[in-house]
Structure formats: structure tokens, C-alpha cells
Amino acid sequence: MLSGKFLLKSSKLINLTSLRCFSTSPAHLGTGDLFKMIESVNSDSSNISTIDEYFRLNFRKLSFDQAFTLLKQVHKVEELEDSFWVWETIEEAVRQRIMEVPYEQAMEISKCFAYFGKGSDYFQTDIYDIENSNAKLF
Fold first, then answer.
1. How many CB atoms sit inside 10 A of residue 93's CB?
2. Are 86 and 57 in contact (CB under 8 A)?
3. Distance separating alpha carbons of residues 87 and 31, to the nearest angstrom
4. Is there a contact between 115 and 107 (Cβ–Cβ < 8 Å)?
5. d(CA 89, CA 52)
6. How far is CA 96 from CA 41, 60, 112, 116, in A?
């Protein structure tokens, strides 16, 4: 006799309780789940690959506002410093509007990237141009 929930598919019996929950699948992560995973990286580094995969799947799909919100969370977690897709995805999303945002917001973005030495040459050039355009001449 079988206990628990099972699914019969293609003549194979699958234990549903052993399947991963969709909420931990990178493709189905909600923003709240992602924030919890990012916050928990310091104590549970097993989430790093899931976080990295989330950003890979969302490359060129995040809006500026989503990326800015995530950047403020991600830049606090040193364990994510080497996560290529995290930084590449966020940069791709913020670069589309970096020249349009208020100076203070652009500098906040710049500081988050500078903390880990992240940002492409194009991104750094945009930040340099913003800083120079807002320099006050005496």
C-alpha cells in the first residue's frame, strides 16, 4: 500500500512529495521569495545558484524599477559578488535609463556597483558623464 500523494504518468509512479516546490524554482520565484533568498544567503549559501539562475532567466526582462529595487538588496550581500548573471542583468536594466534619473539616484546606483567593482566600461562611462554634467563650476 502506498502512502502520500502519487501521480501516474507514462506508466511511472511519481511521488509528488519528493518534487521541488515551484516557489523555489527560479522560473517561478516571486519578488518576495527572491528577497528572502537574497537575505538568507549569508546563512545559507545554497541559494546562490538559484538566485543566479533567476537573474539569468530574467536577463533583458527586468524593468529599471525592478532592477533598482533588487540592486539595493543585492549590493549588501558579499556572497553574490561573483554571480555573473546577477550583476549583468541588473546593469542591463539600469543602463537603459541611467542618464534620465535624478543625479542622486544615479549616484546611489553607481555606489552599489562600485562597492564590488562591477559595471562595464559603457556603464562606467555613463556614470562619468553624469558626474561631469553635474559638476559645479566655481
1. 23
2. no
3. 17
4. no
5. 10
6. 28, 10, 17, 21
Taking only the tens place, the pLDDT of each residue in 39-49 is 888 877 888 99
- pLDDT, one tens digit per residue, over 70-117 is 999 999 899 999 999 999 999 999 999 999 999 999 999 999 999 999
What is the phi-psi region of residue 4: left when phi exceeds 0, alpha when psi lies from -120 to 50, beta otherwise? left
Cell numbers describing residue 126: 555613463
Secondary structure of 6-42 as H, E, C letters: EEEECCEEEEHHHCCCHHHCHHHCCHHHHHHHHHHCC
Stated length of the chain: 138
d(CA 110, CA 123): 9
> Which residues, other chains included, contact 41 with Cβ-Cβ below 8 Å and sequence gap of 6+?
47, 48, 51, 77, 79, 80
Residue 71 near residue 112 (C-beta atoms within 8 A)? yes
Does the model's pTM come out above 0.70? yes
